Amino acid sequence: MKRNLLLTPGPTQLPAPVCEALGRPIIHHRTPQFQAILKEAVDGLKHIFQTKNDVLILTSSGTGGMEAAVCNLLSPKDQAITVDGGKFGERWTELCQAYGVDAKVLKIKWGQAPTAAQIKQILDEEKNIKAVFVTLVETSTGVTTDIKAIGEVVKKTNAVLVVDAISGLGAVDLQTDNWGVDVVVAGSQKGLMLPPGLAFVSVSSKAWALMEKSTNPKYYFNLKEAKKAAEKTDTPFTPAIGIVIALNESIKLMKAAGLEKLFSHYARLAKGTRAAAQALGLSLLAEDSCISNAVTPINLPVGIDGEKLAKIMRDTHGITVAGGQDAVKGKIIRISHMGCLDEYDMLTGIACLEKVLHEMGHKFQLGAGVAAAQKFFNTK
Ligand SMILES: *Cc1c(COP(=O)(O)O)cnc(C)c1O
């Protein structure tokens, strides 16, 4: 019997009470019982999102929430800013293009984060920008964006700020209301420690006002319909009932831990993992100033095939890490800290990484990564 340790940035490792809730018999959704569950879920999500805005629950993967943001906010030929610095920023551009939106793409190097000054420059030059789309944690590069600084810039304009927080919500800080974020999109299978299947979208009054003007076609992802149903503690379509029930378990755990504590827990796991990488002679893809505490992107030595490394870790040892995407495919691995994980899970992953790197011919002192992480965990 092999273990199945998920050190991947979605899906993530589930807590036992979430697994237990997922095993319960199904109930019907048009019932007072489910309405009570739905209400608890929405209230809990507002806490995690740090918002008083509406939070809508959609049944889809995270990308459905992103599509909802684009097709509800904008109309064909509207202008928007997107960031090309990783796979998921690129997704905002592709979604805009699919809906005929004129995306002004800010191109940045993989491993860097867009700055507020860069966003401000485009907003100053283009007077008709309706929306700015950014990514909290660019999972493909392990970068966290300074949303607070970008919020300062965008809130002084007519544009709305839309944040893909699918990766990172619950693991790194995102103060939706304090930072002036109009729309936040999240998904169930990352920081919220659930199976995939739910997307969450928070909407500010500034964003609702823009939605009134949108002429793009929409049906399943019509957020006005979702809001109308939510006002009656209902959903327009059959929700993923079981995952909503399990969501209340994960929210309970997150509330009991406290958001601040959770953020510092994940920061600690990330820093220990970075110390291990350094001790193994490996550099990181993301720059120090913006490296994420949700996922650590490790550059591999020349000649070590990252796809093969990840496959051996998974198939031989039952420990799953993510490989690289696009330009860095085969060149990096990504170790996630999100999910129900602690320092011993990190040490297990690092030990396995060492074993396979050693077998593949990378030269280093066996145990050096584990020792560096242990030292960090036991002194910090
Ligand atoms: C995982 C992820 C998504 C995509 O979510 P799906 O649930 O696969 O649709 C979008 N953005 C970011 C930053 C992600 O990490």
Short description:
By secondary structure, this protein is an alpha/beta fold. It folds into 2 domains: 5-10 and 258-377, Aspartate Aminotransferase, domain 1 (Alpha-Beta Complex); 16-256, Type I PLP-dependent aspartate aminotransferase-like (Major domain) (Aspartate Aminotransferase, domain 2). Helix content is 43%, strand content 17%.
Q: Could you characterize the architecture of this molecule?
A:
This protein has helices at 16-22, 32-49, 62-73, 87-98, 116-125, 147-154, 205-211, 223-231, 241-257, 259-279, 306-317, 343-359, 368-379; strands at 5-7, 54-59, 79-84, 102-107, 129-135, 137-138, 143-144, 160-164, 183-187, 198-203, 295-299, 319-323, 332-336. The protein is of the alpha/beta class and 380 residues long. It has two domains: 5-10 and 258-377, Aspartate Aminotransferase, domain 1 (Alpha-Beta Complex), CATH 3.90.1150.10; 16-256, Aspartate Aminotransferase, domain 2. The strands form three sheets. It has a seven-stranded mixed β-sheet, with helices on both faces. The protein starts with a strand and ends with a helix. It binds pyridoxal-5'-phosphate. Pyridoxal-5'-phosphate (PLP) binds next to α3.
SSE layout and pairing:
Blueprint: E1 5-7, H1 16-22, H2 32-49, E2 54-59, H3 62-73, E3 79-84, H4 87-98, E4 102-107, H5 116-125, E5 129-135, E6 137-138, E7 143-144, H6 147-154, E8 160-164, E9 183-187, E10 198-203, H7 205-211, H8 223-231, H9 241-257, H10 259-279, E11 295-299, H11 306-317, E12 319-323, E13 332-336, H12 343-359, H13 368-379
Helix pairs in contact: 1-9, 2-9, 5-6, 10-12, 10-13, 11-12, 12-13
This protein binds pyridoxal-5'-phosphate.
Pyridoxal-5'-phosphate (PLP) binds at residues 9-10, 61-63, 88, 135, 137, 139, 164, 166-167, 187, 196.
